[in-house]
Specification:
heterodimer; A: two-stranded antiparallel ribbon; 11 helices; 7 strands; B: alpha+beta; 4-stranded mixed beta sheet; 3-stranded antiparallel beta sheet; 17 helices
Chain lengths: 321, 574
């Protein structure tokens, strides 16, 4: 039996399309895997609208968007790439338009609103659509913001699902592929919806900090810190914001396990965070706040004392170490 | 005259949204007018103001997620210059490897995923059915190398999501981004480019890993270039010379620095520029008139007469560090003052893109400001003509890719490539130059890898050098993105950005006209393009689309078609 179709509409606003390119980095599953659906439980996904990788050719493509706007494409997941500008600030003009109707430009935000009303779920791919990203950097000339601020924090889809943010500049291809695959299994009742943190990020991806996931964190605990780029130790003194950013790229790598910002000797610039690229993440070469490093040292001492006390306790109780 | 208006919007580029408005003369069978307009604004130059100059290296990559690394290269060269922070030679090589890795991915993407489908079975059967019959009978001259017997077989392989070349290219593109991630942490948006060098801990196996991945590209090039030659020669044979044809007014800033020559010092820029593996130069009317990066820099202008911006007050930087007077329209003096305006106001301001021009300020030709075209055809042209590198013959660029025994590819042995300067710049030759640039990049990366290994052997593996940031400074970084000449300009005051300006290749190419006699390159290329599709019924605009695509305006494009006010068709082109 043919599995029920789940449609995907991918809409792009104030974006650089880095999230699309990054999505093509995903390998297991890859975009092609997701669309071909090897196991029946995860099959039936159709990408009905994506400017770059869509199957339909010609008039069909626009029909998909129009059908989705009218609620005739059911069910569909809306993936958003790019920030949402404030068109009220654009005077007589517009900041971002996608096509036109009756000689009038249709703004990205208008299309987003129409589509969100009908979507079963809205997934924000990347930091721009999650939190505003680079376009919302001070002084935010276009009033850019993320989808949660445009639709509202408490917004729920018609199926009752909150906006799911998968931040990252760009989004990690595997993060997005996993979230979309997870969403499909959730819609079909195989898995619960992912648990989200206060910023609507799936906890299973964004719970830990970059520092927690950094292969160099052990070297920091060991007191080894790089003082020049190229050195193989903790990059905290050179500007790394790993302790205050949430991402697993250093452990996971970026393309098929290769890369990872801090793993290769780079610094984390906090690209998954709501404040990015402003303080405390920029200036990027400025050291991260010292409090974290001091706190970690104190926690290390406490952990050490605990280990000693545990052994002492065993001795007192007359048990073998 | 029977005129038909063709409206193509959104012709979305990766880093933005682009629209084309074209007017066709059905009696003459050609396009007679065109407007190119950019319909998205984010305000990078405003966001950068007041930040630390180094932040621009990360922030400006986000201008374009398809070609981020050249932004990082242009930015870091501007910041190196303002900070007086020259990197050690290995730092320069690692930057080149990051840059090259991206070009390998981006050239394959352009030819096979963005432009290729315009010549695929699906497109040709629909828009040029007469071509399809001919393609089925046309034998592919290079069949021995790539395995496709007829041109129709190549066209089938270019079908989106099912064609063999289309699918293979996704894999080869990912491999380019994987090479960039190896040295840059991730791609898009590499993290390791910093003032004074790179933030990369060079491990004993990094260069070998990079080489192993490069071998795939070397092997792929030996099939890919012959495929493109066969396809494009066939298209030319159908009389496609006039399509997208434009005067030879070209701009290349050059790329892939010589690690021993690059000093980040403005006065030295002409000498390190000439040592680049890809040569800088300005071509006006088919003549290479200068290769001097200082002369090229000082001649750059950005006009906003037809763009949604307000004018700015006179020059704030009177002269460049070498003492040459700077025009008020030079990017070091330009201020970005956005002012959104009405849609499709063809007689006044109609685009978010500015109109860059290059002024022949040394009066080598006529002293005028010219609309120059950027792209792989410009850099291949200049490099082939100039004779700065041994591979340049004056009329061609000749190089040999080494033997590469990689499973899954047809040609193992070394292979010689020769890109010849074409008689004209048109839609087909732009695409061909992009394919050959892929092979040339693989060649340059291979040779620089050998150089890097020798440097490691000699104990010169330092990747970064400490610097003392001065209070004030000027910087310019000029390099090449896949789609052409890219430069960043910074004015630093009190260690902060006072002014930051970027002119992208799509800015050079997509900019609006300044007058009806001075069109932007996209507009200029469309005017005079013959209509090859049937003209009774609706016009799809396929010839316009192919022409715009040949400039490689990034990924997704949708084509809206208008007859009067009625939207007839939207064609998203993969």
């Amino acid at each position: 039996m043919e599995p029920e179709k789940i449609h995907v509409i991918w809409l792009s606003g104030q974006a650089c399309t880095g999230c699309t390119v990054s999505f093509l980095n995903a390998t297991h599953p890859s975009l092609v895997d997701i669309l071909t659906g090897f196991i029946p439980q995860a099959a039936g996904i159709t990408l009905d609208y994506h400017q770059t990788i869509m199957l339909p050719w010609g008039e069909e493509a626009l029909k998909a968007v129009e059908a989705a706007e009218k609620g005739e494409l059911n069910p569909f997941v809306l993936v958003v790439e790019g920030a949402v500008p404030d068109e009220d600030k654009a005077g007589e003009g517009y900041w971002c338009a996608i096509g036109e109707e009756n000689g009038r430009p249709i703004t990205f935000s208008e299309r987003l609103k129409r589509l969100a009303d009908e979507a079963i779920a809205v997934v924000a791919a990347g930091t721009c659509s999650s939190f505003g990203g680079i376009p919302h950097g001070k002084p935010n000339p276009t009033g850019a913001r993320g989808v949660i601020d445009f639709l509202g924090r408490d917004w729920r889809s018609k199926a009752g699902v909150p906006i799911i943010n998968v931040p990252g500049c760009p989004v990690h291809g595997e993060h997005l592929a996993e979230v979309l695959a997870h969403a499909v299994l959730a819609v079909r009742g195989y898995l619960p919806l992912p648990e989200l943190d206060e910023w609507h990020r799936p906890k299973y991806i964004f719970r830990q900090t970059v520092h927690d996931n950094c292969p160099r964190a052990g070297l920091y605990s060991d007191g080894k810190t790089s003082h020049a780029f190229g050195e193989p130790y903790c990059m905290g003194l050179l500007g790394c914001k790993g302790p205050i950013s949430h991402c697993d790229a250093p452990k996971r790598g970026f393309v098929e396990g290769v890369g990872g910002c801090t793993a290769i000797g780079g610094i984390c610039i906090g690209c998954t965070e709501p404040e990015f690229p402003d303080e405390p993440y920029g200036p990027f070469l400025k050291k991260a706040p010292a409090t974290f490093f001091i706190a970690e040292k104190i926690r290390g001492i406490i952990a050490g004392l605990d280990a000693v006390w545990h052994r002492f306790e065993e001795k007192l109780a007359g048990r073998k170490l | 005259m029977v005129k038909k208006e063709v409206m193509i919007e959104p012709m979305t580029r990766l880093e933005g949204h682009l629209g084309i408005h074209a007017v066709a003369d059905l009696e003459k069978g050609v396009y007679v007018d065109a407007h190119s307009f950019v319909v998205m604004f984010r305000g990078f130059e405003i966001i950068l103001k007041g930040r630390e100059p180094a932040d621009a290296i990360w922030i400006t990559q986000r201008i374009c997620g398809v070609c981020p690394t050249p932004h990082a290269i242009a930015s870091v060269q501007a910041v190196d210059m303002a900070y007086q922070a020259p990197p050690p030679p290995m730092g320069v090589l690692l930057r080149n490897f990051l840059h090259g890795a991206e070009q390998l991915y981006d050239a394959a993407l352009g030819c096979l995923v963005l432009e290729g489908p315009d010549y695929s079975e699906a497109a040709v059967k629909k828009w040029n059915p007469d071509w399809w019959e001919k393609a089925r009978k046309a034998k592919a001259p290079n069949a021995k190398l790539h395995g496709y017997k007829t041109i129709a077989d190549i066209m089938k392989a270019l079908n989106p999501l099912s064609g063999e070349l289309w699918l293979r290219s996704l894999t080869i593109e990912k491999l380019g981004r994987k090479m960039a991630s190896l040295l840059g942490g991730k791609h898009p948006h590499v993290v390791s480019i910093v003032p004074g060098g790179v933030a990369k801990t060079l491990t004993p196996t990094d260069l070998e890993q990079y080489a192993a991945m490069l071998a795939h590209h070397v092997a792929f090039a030996k099939e890919f270039i012959p495929v493109m030659d066969d396809l494009l020669d066939f298209v030319l044979s159908l009389g496609y010379e006039e399509c997208g044809s434009r005067k030879m007014n070209l701009l290349s800033y050059g790329a892939y620095d010589d690690p021993e020559a690059y000093t980040a010092n403005y006065e030295d820029m002409p000498s390190w520029g000439l040592k680049r593996a890809v040569s800088p130069g300005v071509v006006i009317d088919g003549e290479l008139i200068t290769q001097d990066l200082i002369e090229i820099n000082v001649g750059v202008r950005e006009f906003i007469d037809r763009s949604y911006y307000e004018d700015w007050a006179g020059p704030s930087v009177a002269e460049d560090p070498a003492g040459n007077p700077l025009d008020a329209k030079h990017p070091w003096n330009k201020e970005t003052k956005p002012k959104p305006g009405p849609y499709k106001a063809w007689d006044s301001k109609y685009s978010w893109a500015g109109s860059p021009r290059w002024e022949d300020w040394k009066r080598r030709v006529d002293g005028f400001a010219h609309a120059l075209e950027a792209g792989p055809i410009a850099r291949m042209w200049v490099t082939a003509k100039a004779g700065n590198v041994p591979e340049s013959t004056g009329s061609s660029l000749k190089f040999t890719l080494p033997k590469a025994a990689v499973a899954g590819y047809k040609v193992i042995d070394e292979m010689e490539f020769e890109w010849k300067i074409p008689e004209r710049v048109n839609t087909v030759e732009r695409v061909r130059a992009r394919a050959y640039y892929y092979a040339y990049t693989a060649y340059v990366m291979y040779n620089q890898l050998l150089q890097a290994l020798e440097m490691v052997k000699a104990g010169r593996a330092e990747v970064w050098r400490k610097y003392r940031k001065p209070r004030d400074g000027l910087g310019v970084g000029m390099t090449e993105a896949m789609r052409g000449a890219l430069a960043h300009w910074v004015v630093m005051k009190g260690q902060r950005i006072q002014n930051y300006q970027v002119i992208t290749p799509s800015g050079w190419n997509a900019g609006p006209r300044l007058s009806d006699a001075d069109l932007g390159p996209y507009e200029d290329a469309i005017v005079g393009t013959p209509i090859t599709e049937p003209t009774e019924g609706e016009l799809s605009g396929i010839d316009v689309v192919r022409t715009i695509r040949s400039f490689d305006p990034c990924l997704a494009c949708c084509v809206h078609l208008y007859q009067g006010d009625r939207c007839i068709r939207e064609i998203p082109i993969c």
